[in-house]
TrEMBL record:
DUF1980 domain: residues covered: 147-241
Swiss-Prot/TrEMBL keywords: Membrane, Transmembrane, Transmembrane helix
Signal sequence, renumbered to the chain: none
Pfam family, one: DUF1980_C
Species: Catenuloplanes nepalensis
Stored PANTHER family: UPF0703 PROTEIN YCGQ
Protein name: Repeat protein (TIGR03943 family)
TM region(s), chain numbering: 33-55, 81-105
Length: 242
């Protein structure tokens, strides 16, 4: 791999990151707040590629020959393994994987296992039903024993995943930084449980707090339940992670 090939790969890699960052594709891999950093890194890669090409094309051929000659009349080339850098470029441009979903949730234990108990959650905002995140509901249900959830109709959004007993559960992935550290928040469903709904289907659920809980078989974390009143299938949201 010569210097020009390296520059072209930097241009492709930077362009692929920029393309993902200015749309919604990047949200499958990182949190929304990281978009400016992705754009900045993409622009730096593109600038580095352009400058490398410019320098290499304007340099006299004799200078290239001197740089590539090993002193014994043999030309020196960079390791061919560098071409493997084009694989993530093709992955971003051609076969971008989906966001983490039901399979990842089933293989990982609930993120509540690492949380510390709280006892003074603030009151929920006004609204009927009041929209709460999966993490907020699960935390209040487990660590506050549902004190701030009672007598309220709640609206949760997540995707369907199969529980250990084969019954559907509601789940959503949370990220600290990127998809590599994604962990699921799982909520069991009782009452008007969605029937025959495929895994990874996004649904919006209206219901109420119930004291029912279960243990996540992956890491023995407590999984709270929601008593479902109504539910409806919805398109996958733009921001699929919490």
């Amino acid at each position: 791999m010569n210097r020009q090939a390296q520059a072209v790969i930097m241009l492709l890699f930077g362009g692929a990151i920029l393309k993902a960052s200015i749309g919604d594709l990047y949200l499958r891999y990182v949190k929304e707040m990281l978009q400016p950093f992705l754009i900045a890194s993409a622009l730096l890669l593109i600038a580095a590629g352009v400058m490398t090409l410019w320098y290499d094309l304007r340099a006299p051929q004799t200078e290239h020959d001197h740089e590539e000659d090993d002193g014994h009349g043999h030309k020196h080339h960079e390791p061919r393994v560098g071409w493997l850098l084009i694989l993530p470029v093709l992955g971003l441009l051609l076969v971008a994987p989906p966001a983490l979903g039901a399979y990842a949730a089933g293989q990982s234990g609930s993120a509540l296992a690492g949380q510390q108990a709280e006892s003074d959650y603030p009151a929920l905002p006004e609204g009927d039903p009041v929209k709460v995140t999966m993490l907020d509901y699960a935390s209040r249900a487990v660590f506050d024993e549902g004190k701030s959830l009672t007598d309220r109709r709640l609206l949760l959004t997540g995707f369907v995943t199969q529980g250990p007993d084969g019954q559907p559960m509601l789940a959503r992935m949370i990220l600290s930084c990127c998809a590599a550290d994604g962990r699921p928040i799982k909520v069991g469903l009782s009452g008007n449980v969605p029937a025959a709904v495929p895994s990874d289907t996004w649904i919006e659920v209206t219901g109420a707090y119930t004291a029912q809980t279960a243990k996540d078989p992956v890491n023995e974390a407590t999984v709270p339940y929601l008593e479902v009143e109504t539910w409806q299938e919805i398109p996958a949201p733009k921001q699929q992670y919490e």
